[in-house]
Amino acid sequence: MRKVSFAEFGGPDVLRLVDAEEPHAGPGQVRIAVRAAGVNPVDWRIREGQVLGAHPVELPSGVGLDAAGVVDEVGEGVEGVEPGDRVFGEGTDTYAEFAVLSAWARMPGNLTFEEAAGYPSVVETALRVLHEVGVRPGETLLVSGASGGVGSAVLQIARDRGITVIGTAGAANQDYLRDLGALATTYGQGWTERVRRLGHVDAALDLAGSGVIRELTELTGDPARVLSIADLDAPRFGVRFSGTAGDIRAALTEAVDLISRGRLHIPVDKSYRLDEAASAHIDSRAGHTRGRRVLVVAAER
Fold first, then answer.
1. Are 286 and 208 in contact (CB under 8 A)?
2. 115-127 burial, b if ≥16 CB within 10 A, otherwise e?
3. Is the pTM of this model over 0.90?
């Protein structure tokens, strides 16, 4: 099978499309024929060699956590799923023609594989950070970097829970944020004053790592009500950095419920072929995403 791999840490140029042995489902796992794989910032952070304790790496290493596809192998002890089922979930080395998933759910019928691949880690992260920052119904949450995958999920889940959201993003994504139910404003000089004009901020999330921790703390008045998933220096300011995944199975269950009720939709901003993984990483690192980026591994069937 074909698989994206890297033998050394570095820039996107270290990624190679190689021939590899097919993986097989172990106990409690399923293997899928991958139709599409999600592209997440954690993918290029791992490739660069950033220290992420939740994702230890042994070189050479594959790439990717999220995928959607068709089950073709079921491991020992697995019930409720069988070959031929369309699922999405999280596993290892998902930038490949076959991948093993450790957590999965049946795809909602209205999703394509391309769309479904963009949900697992994004929804888990959104649910986790909303819980960890402690924002409650009736409060106002500020989201810095709100137009990407996690931001798109946070805005919609927060709205479903009765939380007001102020989102910051580039000028081109202001209408997108408003369509998701957020009060929107742009980055750049004077952005904190623009936020203050939109309302009092109870809690804040840094999803982009753009060096705004100090300002977010000033806006909330309490570093304990600020959380980052993108700035490894956040603890220097007394702000929590959240980088360890929580209950992905529970997150997938909630994602299916939200999608089925029409309360969550994350658009695919751009799709890439498997041999374009390096370009996908370059674009993901540059930011300014509206929704998700995914690799299309095989045509929809």
1. no
2. bbbbbbbbbbbbb
3. yes
pLDDT digits (tens, 9 = 90+) for 2-18: 999 999 999 999 999 99
With contact defined as beta carbons under 8 Å apart, do 147 and 289 qualify? yes
d(CA 118, CA 140): 27
Q: Is the pLDDT of residue 52 over 90?
A: no
Q: Is the pLDDT of residue 21 over 70?
A: yes
Rounded Cα gap, residues 43 and 39, in angstroms: 7
Listed in sequence order, the residues at least 6 apart from 224 whose beta carbon sits closer than 8 Å to its beta carbon are 238, 240
DSSP lists the bridge partners of residue 271 as: 294
Long-range contact pairs involving 224-233 (C-beta distance under 8 Å, separation at least 24): 225/133, 225/134, 226/133, 227/129, 227/132, 227/133, 227/203, 229/125, 229/129, 229/150, 229/205, 230/41, 230/145, 230/206, 231/206, 232/50
Q: Is the peptide bond before 60 cis (omega within 30 degrees of 0)?
A: yes
Whether residue 51 is predicted with pLDDT greater than 80 in this model: the reply is no
